[in-house]
Amino acid sequence: MELKNYIAGEWVEGELQTMPIINPATGEHLGTVPLSTKTEIDAAVQAAKKAQKEWALLPAPKRADYLYEIGFKLKEKKEYLAQILTKEMGKVIEEARGEVQEGIDMALYMAGEGRRLFGETAPSELANKFAMSVRAPIGVVGLITPWNFPIAIATWKSFPAIVAGNTFVWKPSNETPMMAYELAKIFEEVGLPKGVANVVFGTGPTIGTAMIEHPDVRVISFTGSTATGSKVAELGGKHLKKISLEMGGKNAVIVMDDADVDLAVQGIVWSAFGTAGQRCTACSRIIVHRDVKEELEEKLLKEMRAITIGNGLDPDVKVGPVINRQALEKINHYVQLGKQEGATLLTGGHILTKAPYDKGFYFEPTVFTNVSPNMIIAQEEIFGPVVSIIEIDSLEQAIEVNNGVRFGLSSSIFSRNVNTIFKAQQLLDTGIVYVNAGTTGAEIHLPFGGTKGTGNGHRDSGQAALDVYTEWKSVYVDYSGTLQRAQIDT
Ligand code: NAD
Fold first, then answer.
1. Cα of 152 to ligand 1 centre, how many Å?
2. 297 lines ligand 1 (CB under 6 A)
3. d(CA 251, CA 278)
4. Cβ(255)–Cβ(289) under 8 Å?
């Protein structure tokens, strides 16, 4: 499949260089993606700008009708999309179906916002005067997304943007362009007016930069690594853009001495090794009370023996490949570093090289123990199926270890004590806290994002996402027929 850009409602051919799309489970060549330039970004931004005036004037409930149609199409194509997602990205088919479902949920939820988009009314301090605030669209927004949730994250960003009356240019990751292509086809199929949604493929440094620097792009919504996000923030700040950043994590599960250890182990296995550890919310640290550490390690090793690794299209497989060779090498580098730092390798630790794994990019689910909180493997985002066990002996220490990293996305605590649980949810410095569940599993109607190195104060998902794509406009209507001066005339 040779992909094309989607600009102004047309599939645009170009004399562009291309890059192969590879199935990480098998090494199979799935197609090619064009590597666009500033010229294509210019064309897409112009199309979005032209469409935006009319789009913003369409009543929000009518804009929302398109989102309902998009949601129904996603539902109709759920299995088809999930199969492509697994082939392109590698996550197991059950998770791929869940990701498409997230897009469906987001479409229907944000369509509902078309009949809300609530503002406020307030009493005026002057007689015969009315005061209100409304959410106004901003204009053309630029979306930059990663490969690990290629459809869900695109829906978190594009759906609130369009229901609020903006148009957008989206630069997906080159690792997963087929999902972007399929979503663009859906935009076309539901008859979204030309220019409202534009998809341009290419590299971050070339077209991401061109989008951030473009004078007609007012907002950049980025999800990706903290290293890239800080470059986006720097360039966007220089051009005075509104920048929303959702970045990396170093998420922990805390297991207290009164926890249900069996349940904690299930939560850990799901959140550390699901999606081969390539979720921004993946559990990368287990902070365990010394009284239950041995029990937890035994039960974790037992549970891990049941993990099947392989091509995610096989419904029995629980852990698929990682995205590419570079990722495999990065994970291996951290594992070697962990050994050098003096952590004990409890299980795993190898790239799988023998058949049937030799054509794809597979890493063994890996557990380190006796890890101290300041080791590099306990501080940096590894983004693979590797987890580190850190021993603590109090809730205070657990919180200190949890918060002692530069990221702040997700945290989890297993305990049966209501006081412990409430104290923890208050003190854990992360944007998301789970109690008696692993570190993953966000629902689309709550805000999604994190503190410190994970974000810059904005949120995807939920109503909070609307804050990224709208400006507050305060409107004063004076019907007194006289000049009334605020603060002066009483
Ligand atoms: P990445 O930072 O390498 O790339 C993200 C996107 O930015 C891609 O589309 C890429 O092409 C683009 N890009 C690269 N350089 C750029 C530049 N100079 N200017 C503009 N754009 C540029 O991240 P990735 O490897 O695709 O994704 C994995 C990362 O994403 C992990 O760190 C993960 O934690 C994070 N993530 C965060 C969340 C969240 O909501 N917090 C969700 C999913 C993934």
1. 14
2. no
3. 12
4. yes
CB 114 within 8 A of CB 142: no
- 230 alpha carbon, distance to own chain's centre: 16
Q: How many CB atoms lie within 10 A of CB 291?
A: 12
Q: Where are the domains of the chain?
A: 5-247+455-475, 251-435
User: Contact, 126 vs 116, CB < 8 A?
Assistant: no
Burial label for 431, CB within 10 Å (0-12, 13-18, 19+), is buried
Determine what percent of the chain falls in helix, strand and coil, rounding each to the nearest 5. 40, 25, 35
For domain 251-435, give its CATH number from 3.30.565.10, 3.40.50.720, 3.40.309.10, 3.20.20.10.
3.40.309.10
Express each pLDDT in 433-445 by its tens digit.
999 999 999 999 9
Question: Among 365, 251, 344, which residue's Cα sits nearest to residue 300?
Answer: 365
- Ligand 1 neighbour 236 (Cβ under 6 A): no
Q: How many residues does the chain have?
A: 490
Q: Which two tokens stand for residue 26?
A: 């098998």
Residue where the block lists tokens 């869940």 = 98
DSSP labels, 243-311: EEEE----EEEEE-TTS-HHHHHHHHHHHHHGGGG-STT-EEEEEEEGGGHHHHHHHHHHHHHT--BS-
- For ligand 1, pick from 19, 91, 144 the residue to mutate: most ligand atoms within 8 Å of CB: 144
pLDDT tens, position by position, 452-475: 999 999 999 999 999 999 999 999
What is the rounded CA–CA span in Å between residue 375 and residue 377? 5
Annotation marks residue 246 as catalytic:
yes
Nearest to 408 by CA among 471, 456, 480: 456
Question: Which CATH architecture does the domain made up of 5-247+455-475 adopt?
Answer: 3-Layer(aba) Sandwich (3.40)
Catalytic residue among 280, 283, 364, 381: 280
Phi, psi (deg, nearest 5) at residue 251? -80, 150
- Which atom of ligand 1 is nearest to 225's Cα? 32
With a 6 Å cutoff on the Cβ, whether 148 touches ligand 1 is yes
326-352: pLDDT as tens digits: 999 999 999 999 999 999 999 999 999
Q: Among this protein's residues, is 280 annotated catalytic?
A: yes
Q: How many CA atoms lie within 13 A of 200 on its CB side?
A: 33
Cβ-in-10-Å burial (0-12, 13-18, 19+) of 434 comes to: buried
Coil vs helix vs strand at 332: helix
pTM reported for the whole predicted model: 0.97
Q: Give the mutation target among 33, 173, 275 for probing the ligand 1 site: most ligand atoms within 8 A of CB.
A: 173
Task: Take residue 196 and report the two structure tokens written for it.
Answer: 């409202």
Closest CA to 224 of 153, 126, 318, 312: 153
Q: Please check the confidence at residue 119 and state whether its pLDDT lies above 90.
A: yes
